[in-house]
Amino acid sequence: MNKNSFLSGLKAGVSIAIGYFPVALTFGLLAKTTGLSIWEATAMSIFVYAGAAQYMSLTLISKGVDPILIVLNTFVVNIRHFLMTAALNEKMQSEKRWVKGIYAFGITDESFSVLATQKESKIATPFAFGVAVIAYSSWVIFTAVGHVIGANLPAFLQAAMSIALYAMFVGLLVPSMRGNRKVVMLALVAAVINGFFYWTGLLSTGWSILVATLVSSILIEIIYAKRGKNLPKGA
Amino acid sequence: MGMWYWWTLLGMALVTYIPRAFPLTFLEGKELPPVVSGVLRNIPYAVLGALIFPAILYVQQDNLLFGLIGAAVAFSLAFLFSNVMIVVLGTIGVLAVYSLIF
Fold first, then answer.
1. Which of A37, A74, A85 comes nearest B20 by C-beta?
2. Max Cα separation, chain A?
3. Which segments cross the bilayer (chain A) (predicted)?
4. For A37, which of A110, A175, A225, B79 is 20 to 30 Å away at the CA?
């Protein structure tokens, strides 16, 4: 394994690890108040590793919802990852399937965003492992820590850190927007569609992100393909 | 929690892993039609738009101003510096000061 690109992967994943810290801490705490033992709570972070789905499962468990419905809900919330990993596949270095099957476990909204916005045309496998390892470690470790200490960060810090993952998304998006109108349009159209579903309540968050992303990606591609035909190359 | 919890966990783990692993392993080495790969190349930027908005406004559910300030600071920092860590730590810093004062 190429050590250098593994290390740069770890480095690129630090902002995810920072962002997961307060979210995982709170998850550990909430799991405790829901009645999960430290092993049960930490095992969920180890084996499932999906923020939104884990939070929702706590609510469903405390309401005594049928386990089958909890599993179904988890699937629905995470269905958008089909789209993300299909997109990521275009950017990843060719690799043995079982190796890809391992780092695939580490693909979240956040690690996908970090990987997919790298400037290199192809991403090395060790780099993906680096990003996945540091993010996953933060998620698992701070779940356990949250359960053990059974308390949150000081309120002002907890509030301030709740912005971390969104600030990271902004920090990944904006540099790509510079001088690239297509990127601006893609993000803007998806944001508007997602806002529409959010405020009308027509779709739940998981579906809303999926539909907004797909519609924006297809729509902008059609517009640019048409323009490409009408305009001379390079215009 | 009883044994049912561990079965639920197994189910959750499987349905979370499949959407992550299936495209990456199934599509390995496959050449997609240019239209499809064109759309797939658009997805990261569209996803980021949808992940950011409107959720960034509601990081503190009862305080829209908090989210607005956070968004404004994050975008300003991102325009000034192309470094993700500066954007993340800078935004946390500004909001920490803001929460301490108000």
1. A85
2. 65
3. 12-31, 127-149, 155-174, 183-201, 207-225
4. A110
Domain coordinates of chain B in residue numbers? Answer: 31-101
> For residue A117, what is the nearest residue in chain B, using CA coordinates?
B44
Bridge partners for A123 per DSSP:
A92
Interface contact A41, partner B, CB < 8 A:
no
Q: Phi and psi dihedrals of A92, rounded to 5?
A: -85, 145
Contact A27, A55 (CB under 8 A): yes
The pLDDT mean for chain A works out to: 93
Residues of chain B with pLDDT under 70: none
Q: Say whether B51 and A209 touch across the interface (CB within 8 A).
A: yes
Q: Write the CB contacts of A106 (distance below 8 Å, at least 6 apart in sequence).
A: A49, A128, A129, A131, A132, A133, A135, A136
Tokens of B69: 């300030």
pLDDT, one tens digit per residue, over A18-47 is: 999 999 999 999 999 999 999 999 999 999
Identify the pLDDT of residue A235: 35
